[in-house]
Amino acid sequence: MAIRGQSTEWEDVQRKFGNLPEKEVEITAEQFEAMLVEAAEKKQDEVMQKKTLDELEELEDEEDEAFLEKYRQQRIEQMKEAAKNDRYGTVEEISRTDFKQEVSDAGDMWVVCHLYQDGIPECQLVNRCMMQLADKLRGTKFVKIISTRCIPNYPDKNLPTILIYHKGDVRGQIIGIGQIGGLKMTPDDLEWELSKTGAFKTDIDEPPHKKSTFSMKRGAAARAQRGEDDSDEDSDF
């Protein structure tokens, strides 16, 4: 059986006398692609050869300038984004007179404002957690203010209170931290709750305090199955 692209001796003789058409030459995909590239390059060379020296120089300058301008714009956007995401980094103490400028009129910036009082453990915990979050989430503005300086006669029972502002509007609030771990709240717990308002994106994929609560319950259940008591762990006997 003859293979395409090959022929028998008899077929070669017949083609020599014109009794058979010329045999087909099989072209691979790689060869076909190479032929297209060669044809395109040849066409480009023909176009370039017809241009004068001035036209070639002008074309070269235009291409270089376009490339540089595109690169400059990309770098400018990268620098703007980097500056936007590294604008703050600390928790700023503000006064009542600062509130409008620093919080209400902060424009497109997200602002997390903690109303607190000294001497309240929950408020102290929130301040510590916010310090860590401010350092991590530098594109978000974190501020704190003594509650009664912000709102006269604001009741301590509502502390700590956290207000989340964006474009002059309150987008969320947290009153008390009992639902997010209480005095066992971690920076991750607070980050998760704040992220739900849209103030920033978080890499935490589930509520940390629920995860720890589940772990504690599972541990207690395991000890109960073994007939152990929590107090046994603290005893030497």
TrEMBL record:
**Biological processes per GO annotation:** protein folding
SUPFAM superfamilies reported for this sequence:
Thioredoxin-like (SSF52833)
Q: Which residues form a coiled coil?
A: 42-69
Which GO cellular component term is one of those annotated? cytoplasm
Keyword annotations: Coiled coil
Taxonomically, the superkingdom here is Eukaryota
Q: Where is this region: Disordered?
A: 201-237
Query: Which Pfam families would you find in this protein's record?
Result: Phosducin (PF02114)
| Keyword tRNA processing listed | no
For this protein, the record's InterPro entries field holds: Phosducin-like_chap/apop_reg, Phosducin_thioredoxin-like_dom, Thioredoxin-like_sf
Specify the Phosducin domain's residue ranges: 43-191
Q: Does the keyword Secreted apply?
A: no
Q: What is stated as this protein's family in its record?
A: Belongs to the phosducin family.
Recorded protein name is: Phosducin domain-containing protein
The source organism is Palpitomonas bilix
